[in-house]
Amino acid sequence: MLSIKQNLLETIQGGNPDRFVKQYEFLDIIMETPMELALCPGPGTEIVNSWGVTVRWPKGQIGSFPVHDAEHIVLKDITEWRKYVKAPSVDYPEERWTAAIEHVNSVDRNEKYVTTLVAPGVFELTHYLMSMEEGLMAFYEEPEAMHELIDYITDWEIRYAKQVIDHLHPDALFHHDDWGSQISSFISPATFEEFLLPAYKKIYGFYKANGVELIIHHSDSYAANLVPFMIEMGIDIWQGVMSTNNVPELIKKYGKQITFWGDIDSGKIDTPDWSQEVIAQNVEHACRECGKLYFIPGASQGLNISSFPGVYEAIDVEIDNMTKKMF
Amino acid sequence: MSKIEEVKALVEAGKSKKIAAAVQEALDAGDKAQDILDAMVASMSVVGDKFSAGEIFVPEMLIAAKSMSKGVEVLKPVMAGDTSNSLGTCIMGTVAGDLHDIGKNLVVMMLESAGFDMIDLGVDVPAEKFVEAIKENKNVVLVACSGLLTTTMPALKEAVQTVKAAFPDMKVIVGGAPVTPEYAAEIGADGYAPDAGSAAVKAKELVA
């Protein structure tokens, strides 16, 4: 039987895996890493991250939202971004790294990837700062300022990456940046190529040049039209790929260059009235349609959790069942 | 290119910084305000169709709608009091328990561009609030309910059924990522649209 890591490599390299990769089993995410870009507040609370963005998780909701009313919005005018946007320091006191280093030292790197997490990503941060509508329009109306802002964020990300690499020597990067809705990419491929591709080539290139073997990018959306750019920027695995992307077709077309992780939409299975039967149907459909290579079955959720208790584990059970049926 | 054609092209291209001057020049050149407005509505219809066909993306639609809005600002004083262009009032909101507003905002813009007077109730709107808004506003001809989350599909149903119970003849259109035409029919909605571009087309059909 292959180890977890060997099985992952056989899957993404088109070799001979002996089972389906089971969601996040191959990643040990070091959540203790100093992360000023706080992922989200707890349910019913709000935080202000170190970029000054207020992120609120209203009671009864299944996720958090940046707040963009007049009182809270950070970037009020893209043409004056320098006045409003101040990147936080990446120089943390050494004691801030202690817990993360202890966690890293406890990981069996033969079995799992020591993984660092970055969220939100470059595109997300632009609209966290100024709202989605203003952020999207700025690509067209103030392209020079957007280029400058993206360069500024990219520079910050690379300085942060250097700190993480120096302290933790991670094997994998799990990087969030949602690039689309469920049915289309937010921006056109041409706009993506002009603004985000260069930024991510720098960021992912830096991680890879400094010992990070695996780049996993999370975008639980449609983004099939961006896959050639994902390959170019160095993504090894696209996590969160939704069924609206026609994943079997993507695997056929690009599988040798990038692996697809998902094809099970969280919105369909991770519900208050979830059932094992519905999860089984969705997992079986994904596994049978997408096959054994260049594919990892899993919910589109961007962490090893589910919105409703028991769903994540139920998916694991059904992946095991599909391994028994197909391997 | 005539002035009116220039206005049309500027809306389609989303040139919001140039549109006001172009509309004013068209007026100065003798074009009727109504014709200029019609040209802009036609542009937005093209933009909506291109979005539905996947030829353009959300930002292009946003800047086109912003341009039209700025053009309309110039026409308003000229057309003051003329309500013949209005297709009627549309009440719109994202249903209870759902805080997603981007799709809803796009639909508001597209319907406004198509000629509806829009009342935007915002997000997390309880079913009863749609009914109150119908009572509080004049000439309401359409209610549009949006929902992005699978978990808020029951709230979408409640919104449609509450509106229909109070105003059986009121047209209701629904949309949002998890909504299907079948679900829309099942919950009693009159119309369904998969995206903001086709929402404008469907809304016009429903009130015709």
From TrEMBL, chain A:
<dbReference type="InterPro" id="IPR000257">
    <property type="entry name" value="Uroporphyrinogen_deCOase"/>
</dbReference>
<feature type="domain" description="Uroporphyrinogen decarboxylase (URO-D)">
    <location>
        <begin position="50"/>
        <end position="288"/>
    </location>
</feature>
<dbReference type="GO" id="GO:0004853">
    <property type="term" value="F:uroporphyrinogen decarboxylase activity"/>
</dbReference>
<dbReference type="InterPro" id="IPR038071">
    <property type="entry name" value="UROD/MetE-like_sf"/>
</dbReference>
<dbReference type="GO" id="GO:0006779">
    <property type="term" value="P:porphyrin-containing compound biosynthetic process"/>
</dbReference>
<dbReference type="Pfam" id="PF01208">
    <property type="entry name" value="URO-D"/>
</dbReference>
<dbReference type="InterPro" id="IPR052024">
    <property type="entry name" value="Methanogen_methyltrans"/>
</dbReference>
<protein>
    <submittedName>
        <fullName>Uroporphyrinogen decarboxylase</fullName>
    </submittedName>
</protein>
Automatic annotation (TrEMBL), chain B:
<keyword id="KW-0479">Metal-binding</keyword>
<keyword id="KW-0170">Cobalt</keyword>
<dbReference type="Pfam" id="PF02607">
    <property type="entry name" value="B12-binding_2"/>
</dbReference>
<protein>
    <submittedName>
        <fullName>Cobalamin-binding protein</fullName>
    </submittedName>
</protein>
<dbReference type="Pfam" id="PF02310">
    <property type="entry name" value="B12-binding"/>
</dbReference>
<dbReference type="InterPro" id="IPR050554">
    <property type="entry name" value="Met_Synthase/Corrinoid"/>
</dbReference>
<dbReference type="InterPro" id="IPR006158">
    <property type="entry name" value="Cobalamin-bd"/>
</dbReference>
<dbReference type="InterPro" id="IPR036594">
    <property type="entry name" value="Meth_synthase_dom"/>
</dbReference>
<dbReference type="InterPro" id="IPR036724">
    <property type="entry name" value="Cobalamin-bd_sf"/>
</dbReference>
<feature type="domain" description="B12-binding N-terminal">
    <location>
        <begin position="1"/>
        <end position="87"/>
    </location>
</feature>
<dbReference type="InterPro" id="IPR003759">
    <property type="entry name" value="Cbl-bd_cap"/>
</dbReference>
<feature type="domain" description="B12-binding">
    <location>
        <begin position="87"/>
        <end position="208"/>
    </location>
</feature>
